[in-house]
Design brief:
75 residues; mainly alpha; 68% helix
């Protein structure tokens, strides 16, 4: 997989926790952790936009819709 090198500025506490995650084996590398976190956030943002468009076109979910979803998802 091709990668592109970039520079970012992070809060010291975030860097400390990220390095601890790598050291603890919860992440392959700092770059991998940042890539995964950024990718997840961007996907969530895209999903939020999709839900906003859906609500604009069809209206927000009804209480019945939410009850059905809770049942199906076992929430």
């Amino acid at each position: 997989m091709a990668v592109q090198k970039v520079t970012v500025a992070l809060e010291p506490g975030v860097v400390r926790r990220a390095k601890a995650a790598v050291k603890g084996g919860r992440a392959k590398s700092l770059s991998a952790l940042v890539n995964a976190a950024l990718d997840e956030q961007l996907r969530r943002d895209e999903l939020d936009e999709l839900f906003d468009r859906w609500d604009a076109e069809r209206g927000p979910p009804t209480p019945e819709d939410e009850a059905w979803a809770a049942r199906v998802l076992d929430l």
